[in-house]
Predict the 3D structure of the following.
Amino acid sequence: MSYQLVIAEKPSVARSIAGVIGATEKHDGYLQGNGYLVSWCIGHLVSFADAGRYDERFRKWRYEDLPILPETWQYIIPDEKKQQFDILRSLMERPDVTGLICATDAGREGELIFRFVYQMAGCEKPFKRLWISSMEDSAIRDGFAHLKPGTDYDPLYQSALCRAKADWLVGINATRLFSVLYHKTLTVGRVQTPTLNLLVERDAKITNFKKEKYHIVHIGLAGADAVSSRFSDAAEANTVKAACAGAQAVCVSVTREKKTEQPPKLYDLTTLQREANRLFGFTAKQTLDYAQTLYEKKLLTYPRTDSQYLTDDMLPVAENLVFGLWELVPFAKGLNISPQFDRILNSKKVSDHHAIIPTAAFVKQGFDGLAESERKLLSLICCKVLCAVAGPYVYEAVTATFTCAGKEFTGKGKTVLSPGWKEIDRRFRFSLKTDSDEVSDTQERTLPELKEGQTFADVAASVTEHFTTPPKPYTEDTLLSAMERAGAEDMPEDAERKGLGTPATRAAILEKLVQMGFVQRKGKQLIPTKDGINLAVVLPEALTSPQLTAEWESRLTEIAMGQADSDEFMAGIEAMTRELVKTYSCISEDKQKLFQAERVAIGTCPRCGEAVYEGRKNYYCGNRACQFVMWKNDRFFEERKKAFTPKIAAALLKDGKAKVKGLYSMKTGKTYDGTVLLADTGGKYVNYRVEHRS
């Protein structure tokens, strides 16, 4: 009997597929049955080798060795993943395996994961591609009924390979170059660095912002509030107020304009991440992780998508989903809305994957057994589906202009004519019961009936004081939006993908910037650190420009569509890398100190009176001529099983003694509290003794 070897990206996906195609017999690292063997990768099983594998001298970071441009690329299998790779290779080599099915995630990275394993194993057997957007049984069955030749996805693989090589070349060379120049590890990335630059530019605008005071005069007339233009001078505003108080106002114009807000589109990943951050405070990575889990539970369609539409042939799916959700979600009950499905169907605007929607399995199962985070995310997606097919929000905007004491005032109001989709959205947000400012159920301000020439006697007048406000720091919501739009003005209208990174990679980029210490989270805000600001400032525009990176992303999309040459793209990356190394050969001595850690004094030296600083292994006097130093691993503290903390060191320097709890006694084997004295004799080593026990 012959077998087809199915290779999935993760064990959970492999199990789902195996259950549908009848491979139920368990073995070590794979499942078997019905003519199939089903196994899995564990993410990236194969990676590019580090520079040190190409040449021993590259193990040290030196300017003279740059740029590093491999002629023949080398690959490695991390030790912790070798076991699963060996299982896959042995399955590929089995004589009864006549072909393979690539069932990794249907996207650029999934393609790369499979191809690397396939090539590293030296496999030449034919393979087909499973391309699905949902893990529901019906979607898997349909996918296996419409398998495509693996060669159809060769351009996608070339695009993925170019992305990986470009990231390696820019990352390795730029990171080493600027780390060597500035004597600190400075990680530079093709997408992360322009993203950091967005944060730094916003931070600079906030820092340099000059707050200005202004005043507005209000007049109250028969239930309407009308306001003046801004006055920078308080005295002038008060003069106008005094002139208006008790005077007569005249309505000189009334304009009524009917306005329509169309329903929102369905979710792509970035929009979902943005709104989940805004409403629930989820990070982009958390949203992706929750969505991926729901996908693997067959409750959600494929999350790593940049499309906000369904294909035209999905009308029956959309109808069943929407009518199922009316009954399922509490905030939709009692609403009588005729769904308009044509708004969410557009095959021309779906590339690899359609928009994110709940599955039929979810409609059947509901929210039972889900974690709170998963329930929240699914509720949000359900709300979006219902809003997307609801009617438009229609209102009448009224603007009235008044004159009083020779000055002009404006009053604005709004009358809702048809709540449409906003009623669903309002109900959903009200059901959340969160503190988010997005959830507040605000009443629209209405104006009384007004007509031109109408007069108002004895009006009330007041002045309010205001300040201009700086731009707000980025949150993950607003930063993801900025990443999506970055460089868009320089892109052709029909470009498949614009902005920094892809929906699938943006979350990881933000996490990496935080982990590397270039960005910190303060509540929902993302703030660049001192090192982050310095890094963005010293790097050339070629690495910080969103336009250039967005252009690369567009080129990669063209390669995936077979419309651009991969060799030409890589030649451009190599040329840029050479030019970068050539341009930045040396920097001034002052600039080399830019990333030095700021020393914080913890006390005063008892010998010379200079400041004492904390080092990695000790507390040392800042005066090089003075030899005073207290070692953190001093035997006195190690014998008493007590860490020599900065707090203890500061107390010893200030008072010559420190109260220390939990000192260990080698004689009794018990702990005790005591006062440690600094007994400095002026020699090479500092001594300590316990003065008092309690």
